[in-house]
Amino acid sequence: MGMTLWWIGIAVLVLVVLPVVVLLLQRLSNAVGRIDTHVRKIHDQAGGLVVAVNDVAALVGTRDRVSRVGSGLTRYVNAVDRIL
To answer: Please, what is the Cα angle at 35 between 52 and 37, to 5 degrees?
Structure first.
């Protein structure tokens, strides 16, 4: 009787538990693969974002130059206005 229960337990393990474990591991592997794909896309897009942010730093100098040109233009218009 004890040996029969032993073989029934092994049969249940092989026929029920093992396939369920393999199925769950396969689903986990698929999910990890999808996560890896998304992480790679995010990493590539983040690299492009860093380049764009570096360009924004260059706009500070442009803003200062536009401000200086604007003030010079205002002085010029005021001078022409006085002449006319």
So the answer is: 60
The tokens for 38 are 């998304």
Token pair of 46 as six digits: 């983040």
* DSSP 8-state assignment for residue 1: -
Nearest to 79 by CA among 68, 67, 71, 63: 71
* pLDDT tens profile 45-71: 887 777 777 777 777 788 888 888 888
CA distance 65 to 8: 85
- DSSP letter for 17, please: I
Q: What is the pTM of this model?
A: 0.48
